[in-house]
């Protein structure tokens, strides 16, 4: 049985060390700017921190994958070029990219460093993935969370590169790398500025009855009753009033997290090469719990044992979890 | 933006504290001052993650305690002091939760997003400042709580162990 790589998130050097200690095979992280899709305030790595963190990871046999997975606009390419150059200088093991310009730069400048295609590229068909593999030498594709396990198995037979799938965390079903909801509301782009629902535009208003209203800029996204679980303040997970609907409802998707603990054997059998845990914006407590749980589960499966699956529901958005489209296209 | 809550009737405030005379907080202030100075001295990189929010005024509301805390994480003029709930100062951001949950956040043992999802953590005001503070504290290696407890020797460490045992109990009221 093929041993899948466990790819884990790190938003800070402390989280990276936590992931390494908890058994990550690889850690993915980014710099403190728009070159990656978790450009949140106070998060990510300075160049000095990145250099020290890569050394720490390598000392412990863990790979570092640098996320450079946003889309540069005209006149801003230098920022992405610098990120790639620094990553190469610090010895990262792969670049995770979405933009073809960035991919081309890596291919031409650092042909010996692996290229992984970010989920932000939204490549889900054999044709699209083969294009990236052929033109840029992409070695691994991170699949959007829209395919069933049988579809992934079929895809694995038709593409010349490795497959990485998300197994835990955010359940993003928008066409990733194409979503402009945040841009529409705040003027900042998830895809070009790396920030979905910028915190500066997020407002929580507690009402006298204990309910909480969530706003992004001038738009009310949701209102949670005092005893109701909450979700992230993103437009795609908002609850809205709409014509022909008696009550407000989740028009796009619900606050819920992906948890594929129960599908790990099927994913390995389908030919998945790497399992990704989402959550660079989360704490090191999250990293420790999620990475430890999946390390144990994957090792049990590889040892031919029934995996012990830790209860991770407390970490999930809205305290709900799903196997999403991986289980069935009728998941919702 | 600054918020003012001088007459905010916090429904989660312990009932009795509303009718008690103000606590003599002067005993607590020098301890808090030492605590924040120690944390700042041991973790100078913490301030980098705060970016433009070093001068933000954070009110921390440990539900169940008869006082609140004001934090201004400005390395040039660090402020960490307790206030009586009747005299809540103006703030840029407000963070409320059970004391033990807040301790867990400081300790690297709890996940802020998870506490928010379960509605055990209330945030209002400048969300960006709160996110920066959360990320700054989360990057502190080891346990801030242990470091602080260590300042008070064996009694401090014993008190922290007791608090952690309490936090581990289900349905703790703190």
The assigned CATH architecture of the largest domain in chain A is Alpha-Beta Barrel
Number of domains of chain A: 2
Q: Please give the count of helices of chain A.
A: 11
**Relative strand content of chain B:** 15-25%
Helix fraction of chain B by DSSP (H/I, runs of at least 4): 25-40%
Q: What shape does the CA trace of chain A take?
A: globular
Average pLDDT, all residues of chain B: 84
Radius of gyration of chain A: 19 Å
- CATH topology title of the largest domain in chain A: TIM Barrel
Give the CATH H-level superfamily of the largest domain in chain A. Answer: Aldolase class I
Name the quaternary structure. Answer: heterodimer
The most extensive interface between chains reads: A-B, 43 and 36 residues
User: How much helicity do the residues of chain A have?
Assistant: 25-40%
Order of SSEs of chain A: EHEHEHEHEHEHEHHEEEEEEHEHEH
CATH C-level of chain B: Alpha Beta
Strand content of chain A: 15-25%
Q: Assign the CATH superfamily of chain B.
A: SCP2 sterol-binding domain
CATH architecture of chain B: 2-Layer Sandwich
Provide tags for this entry:
heterodimer, A: alpha/beta, TIM Barrel, 2 domains, eight-stranded parallel β-barrel, three-stranded antiparallel sheet, 15 strands, globular, B: 174 residues, Nonspecific Lipid-transfer Protein, Chain A, 6 helices, 5 strands, 37% helix, disordered C terminus
